[in-house]
Amino acid sequence: MPRYWLFKSEPECFSYQDLENSPQQTTGWDGIRNYQARNFLRDDVKYGDGVIYYHSNAEPPGIAGIAVVVEQAHPDPTQFDPRADHFDPKSDPQNPTWVQVSIRSVAPVAPEIGLPTLRLSKDLDGLELLRRGSRLSVHPVSQEHWTVLIQMAGFKSDPHANWLADHGLETVAEPIKSSRKTPMTKPARKSASKPDA
């Protein structure tokens, strides 16, 4: 069974639109320099897992799209590049400290679901994103929370489940019965640089 994750990226660094505009709509999720987030990427994030693409440091921050993991953990090349913002001279190429996964866009969430709207949903109680003081840029999302977020985004069926079915990984989920009822916030401003999540 696939797992679900929330990945944060500042839209000024690498927005969901930038992901959609990338070759094959795919990018390596580089620049992770937090050990707990690194451990999730290295040990737990697997091919086919669903990703909530979250715009952080935006006005307001919010969910911008759905993505899927298309390549499991492999060395993050930016740790070895002195020109990169996330160069780590202590990282050994024979035993790299930092990893990345590759993700592919599946469906945009438009309009974005802003953080204030997310905080209003009692069905999202316990979501790591909403925990006071939480700053992790990669963290797990339960299947129950994933379903709520897909409903809030107004999808008639789960676009991630559809992607899995199209790739022979899992049958299509049942159609989502409820639809978004609360007003959503406006999309954040976007740019075209690399992620720094």
Task: Tell me what you see in this structure.
This protein has 197 residues and is α+β, with helices and mostly antiparallel strands. It has a single domain, classed as ph1033 like domains (ph1033 like fold), CATH 3.10.590. The protein is built from five helices and six strands, in the order βαβαβββαβαα. Helix content is 20%, strand content 25%. The protein has a six-stranded mixed β-sheet with strand order 2-5-4-3-1-6.
What is the spatial order of strands in the main beta sheet?
2-5-4-3-1-6
Name of the top-level CATH class: Alpha Beta
Q: What structural category characterises the helix and strand content? A: alpha+beta
Give the mean pLDDT.
Answer: 88
SSE layout:
Layout: E1 4-9, H1 16-21, E2 26-28, H2 35-44, E3 50-55, E4 62-75, E5 99-114, H3 115-120, E6 138-141, H4 143-152, H5 159-166
Entry keywords:
globular; 6 strands; 5 helices; 25% strand; disordered C terminus; ph1033 like fold; alpha+beta; 6-stranded mixed beta sheet; 197 residues; 20% helix
Question: What's this, in brief?
Answer:
With 197 residues, the chain is of the alpha+beta class. The chain has one domain (4-142): ph1033 like domains (ph1033 like fold).
